[in-house]
Design goal:
- With 108 residues, the chain is mostly beta strands.
- The protein has one domain: SpoA-like (Surface presentation of antigens (SPOA), Roll).
Length: 108
Protein backbone atom coordinates (compact mmCIF):
# COMPACT_ATOMS: atom_id res chain seq x y z
CA UNK A 1 0.00 0.00 0.00
CA UNK A 2 1.58 3.31 -1.10
CA UNK A 3 1.49 6.58 0.76
CA UNK A 4 -0.77 9.22 -0.69
CA UNK A 5 0.60 12.73 -1.21
CA UNK A 6 -1.27 15.02 1.18
CA UNK A 7 -1.05 18.82 1.07
CA UNK A 8 -1.51 20.43 4.47
CA UNK A 9 -2.24 24.16 4.32
CA UNK A 10 -1.31 26.83 6.80
CA UNK A 11 -2.57 30.40 7.10
CA UNK A 12 0.09 33.06 7.64
CA UNK A 13 -0.76 36.37 9.26
CA UNK A 14 1.75 39.15 8.68
CA UNK A 15 2.02 41.50 11.64
CA UNK A 16 3.87 44.75 11.05
CA UNK A 17 4.27 45.44 14.74
CA UNK A 18 3.61 43.71 17.99
CA UNK A 19 3.83 45.43 21.33
CA UNK A 20 3.16 44.39 24.90
CA UNK A 21 2.19 47.19 27.24
CA UNK A 22 2.25 47.05 31.01
CA UNK A 23 0.39 49.55 33.13
CA UNK A 24 2.85 51.48 35.29
CA UNK A 25 2.63 50.39 38.93
CA UNK A 26 3.20 54.04 39.93
CA UNK A 27 -0.30 54.81 38.72
CA UNK A 28 -2.47 54.61 41.82
CA UNK A 29 -5.23 52.47 40.33
CA UNK A 30 -4.96 49.12 42.14
CA UNK A 31 -7.29 47.30 39.73
CA UNK A 32 -4.87 47.94 36.83
CA UNK A 33 -1.64 46.81 38.50
CA UNK A 34 0.27 44.34 36.33
CA UNK A 35 -2.26 44.36 33.49
CA UNK A 36 -0.66 43.53 30.17
CA UNK A 37 -2.05 44.17 26.72
CA UNK A 38 -0.66 42.63 23.54
CA UNK A 39 -1.13 44.99 20.60
CA UNK A 40 -0.77 43.76 17.02
CA UNK A 41 -1.24 45.45 13.67
CA UNK A 42 -2.17 42.94 10.96
CA UNK A 43 -1.10 43.88 7.46
CA UNK A 44 -2.60 40.85 5.69
CA UNK A 45 -2.83 37.08 5.52
CA UNK A 46 -2.20 34.29 3.03
CA UNK A 47 -2.53 30.53 2.90
CA UNK A 48 0.04 28.14 1.51
CA UNK A 49 0.95 24.48 1.83
CA UNK A 50 3.15 23.58 4.78
CA UNK A 51 5.86 22.21 2.47
CA UNK A 52 6.16 25.68 0.88
CA UNK A 53 6.43 27.32 4.31
CA UNK A 54 9.22 24.89 5.21
CA UNK A 55 11.15 25.99 2.08
CA UNK A 56 10.90 29.73 2.82
CA UNK A 57 14.22 31.41 3.35
CA UNK A 58 15.45 34.84 4.29
CA UNK A 59 14.26 37.43 1.79
CA UNK A 60 11.35 35.32 0.56
CA UNK A 61 8.41 37.37 -0.69
CA UNK A 62 4.99 36.25 0.53
CA UNK A 63 2.00 37.58 -1.40
CA UNK A 64 -0.78 38.78 0.90
CA UNK A 65 -4.53 39.21 0.48
CA UNK A 66 -4.16 42.99 0.93
CA UNK A 67 -2.87 45.96 -1.02
CA UNK A 68 -0.94 48.95 0.27
CA UNK A 69 -4.13 51.04 0.18
CA UNK A 70 -6.11 48.61 2.36
CA UNK A 71 -6.76 49.39 5.99
CA UNK A 72 -4.92 47.38 8.63
CA UNK A 73 -6.48 45.72 11.66
CA UNK A 74 -5.39 46.67 15.17
CA UNK A 75 -5.80 43.86 17.70
CA UNK A 76 -5.56 44.01 21.49
CA UNK A 77 -5.11 40.57 23.06
CA UNK A 78 -6.22 39.08 19.69
CA UNK A 79 -9.49 41.05 19.68
CA UNK A 80 -10.11 43.62 16.91
CA UNK A 81 -10.29 47.10 18.42
CA UNK A 82 -9.58 49.47 15.52
CA UNK A 83 -8.74 49.85 11.87
CA UNK A 84 -6.30 52.26 10.33
CA UNK A 85 -3.73 52.96 7.68
CA UNK A 86 0.04 52.50 7.62
CA UNK A 87 1.96 55.77 7.60
CA UNK A 88 5.66 55.93 6.66
CA UNK A 89 7.60 59.02 7.72
CA UNK A 90 11.31 58.86 6.81
CA UNK A 91 12.47 55.62 8.43
CA UNK A 92 9.56 55.29 10.91
CA UNK A 93 6.45 53.19 10.41
CA UNK A 94 3.25 54.06 12.26
CA UNK A 95 -0.45 53.31 12.14
CA UNK A 96 -3.01 56.09 11.96
CA UNK A 97 -6.21 54.87 13.61
CA UNK A 98 -9.17 55.72 11.38
CA UNK A 99 -11.96 53.91 13.23
CA UNK A 100 -12.46 52.38 16.65
CA UNK A 101 -14.44 49.16 16.33
CA UNK A 102 -17.40 48.42 18.61
CA UNK A 103 -16.88 45.76 21.25
CA UNK A 104 -18.73 42.51 20.92
CA UNK A 105 -21.35 41.93 23.65
CA UNK A 106 -19.39 38.99 25.12
CA UNK A 107 -16.25 41.17 25.57
CA UNK A 108 -17.71 44.16 27.42
Amino acid sequence: MGLEHVNHWVTITVVICSYRSFVDAEVKVPTLDNVSVDLMVVLGTTSMPVHQVMRLSRGAIIELDATEQDEVKVLANNLPIASGVVVVNRNRIAVEVKQMLPRTPDHR
